Amino acid sequence: MTAELVRGQNHPVSHSRVEVGVSADTALLALVSLADEEGRLGGPGALAHPGAPGLPGVRVSGAPSGRHTVTVDLDAVAAEVHRIGVLLVLAPGGPPRFGAVPPPRVCLAGEGGPEFAAFALTGLDAETALVAVELYRRQGAWKVRAVGQGYAGGLAALLADGGLPAPQAAALATEALHRAAPAPAPATPGPALPTAPAAPAPAPASSPADPDPASHADLAAPVPSPAAPAQAASEIAPAPAAPVPTPAVPEPVPAAPEPSPAESGEPRPGIDYAHPRRRRTTAEPPEPAPRPAPAPAGEPDGPPVPVAGDASGWSMDERLYNQVWGMFEDLARTVAAYRSAVDFADSRLDRELDEALADPRRRLGGDARATARARRDDLVAQARAVLDRDLAQLTAESEVVEPALPAAYARWDNPVWHGPDTTPEEGPLALRLGNLSLPEHPGLKIPMLMRLPLERGLWIDNGRTGSEAAMAMDTDRLRRAAMDMAVAHAARLLAVHPAGRFSVHVIDAAGSGSASLAPLVRAGVLAAPPAAGAAGVAETLARLTRRVDLVQMAMRAGAPEDLPPDLDPADQLLLVHDFPHGFDDRAVTQLRYLADEGPSAGVHLLMVADRDESSAYGPLLDPLWRSLLRLSPVPDHHLADPWVHHAWTFEPDLPPRGSRVLDQALERVARGRRSPRP
User: Fold this and answer.
1) Strands 603-609, 458-461: parallel, antiparallel or unpaired by DSSP?
2) What is the pLDDT of residues 229-249, one digit of tens each?
3) Which residue ranges does the chain devote to CATH 2.60.60.30?
4) Pair 306, 396: CB distance under 8 Å
5) Where in the chain is CATH 3.40.50?
6) Rounded to whole angstroms, what are the CA distances from 519 to 418, 570, 642, 672?
7) Span 3-180: which CATH code?
8) 454-673 in CATH: which number?
């Protein structure tokens, strides 16, 4: 059975010899790159092309064609090779970009056997060279990943992004394309006729080398440490500590490919997506990318074409996570610059009006005041033009990135949730909690992603005093929305992890959340029925507290494998509804202990509660609330951002009303648990 892959999806490879078939409606070159564990090419000898079709374990076909077969002997490739990329390049003289031709298709099969995986490269636009699929080692086994990401700058940009110096990448790309070009047919001899002396042949026009990658923000930067782009009020701080509007970039980062000169425009500023605790571990720091050459005279000059996950050296999840984080930073930075410009214009207007009023000669005339107001309006208009330009680019990027997101990052209405009925083999980097936006452009919504594993618990506030939007909502509807939101988060967490990776426990002491919990109960994916009453609360908390104690003792003893056989090795999620109903003082103490110590032992907390209802405990519970990331079940600007002092509007992401997508996701989880694991 052939697995139809989607962009970013991986699939195990059980054959030692693999045939990769490429079919397209236009002439292509099929090349193969050999890279190390970080995705870096080892030099010109790491590319199989028509001039050098055979490398150890790899062989490619020669001339441009619409049909290619690439053979790979995984047992014969060098030990230092960890990534084998199948590259597709448009043949010289053919279509100008992949978006102008029907999507190519790649099929993988064992030698002489049936296909086991296929991938249609849809959604292409300005790319002229791309990575179709990638075979990679993971824990001693080989897998294939559907990549489908390309470069408008051509093969040279692709190779440069793989770590080759720009001149070497340009020379290797030129050699590969030159060897692939068919030789011109010899002219048919004819009768010699007298002609005028021929003018000297002009020197060949030096075709500009493919530009160095510098048009897109770096998407291959180190993955941030566990943190969310926005966190609870007065507590969230995105990773960069640079001031706005002119933040300093602490270290250069490798840039992604640049569009061709006809498409190039003013590049987005370089952004360091790295969090302090997650840095690239290469021996030498990457070189800063040179600024792109200006567009030739007479040719259109516009913003670079966004490409989702356009980078190398990282998994697709890492690339898209970094890109979403970069979009959040870009939006924060450009809005902060606009607000700063408006504040400056207003303060200067006030100063000039004060000066005009203080001068008796200018007080009666209106020219000075009119001039001051016109100057202020001109400054604001200039700032707004820059903001609109940046927002247009971010909107275009969002329209490309959003459809390409994997299930862990995607909205519930994304078609990825209706993809192949397969169980994930690896856990994701992060989980989508909702959307973030700013009032300058409410329609531009940036996914709010929180790194996994959850280093802090989540608190969905079902109280009416938490925000203006909540106060305007009926109490029962608000509580139901909060519980529906919690169930959606729990379902997403289960659906995007391998079968059995997460166990979900529910405390619903009063049973008031039964309607929202019905999908989880119906699918049979809970570790136990929802705990009810004080006895159920005590039993559940005691079991999870014991787990944390045992794991911590084993870790301190340096023997994490010496755990009781009855201990569930999966990570645990505790969903608490209607706190503090059913909780006595001992249970409250255990809950605080789980919130503080649980994440390090694989126990994570998701609470649905109204803080006012626990006011009887006084300041005793203040540390608990501060340790949790507060979210609202209704759209509200309750997320404070001390980095640039924005109040971000958070909007929860819920399954569409009337849709069965949540039930289908949970049914897939249940089937994955019932299926025998290989």
Assistant:
1) parallel
2) 333 333 333 333 333 333 333
3) 3-180
4) yes
5) 454-673
6) 18, 21, 38, 17
7) 2.60.60.30
8) 3.40.50
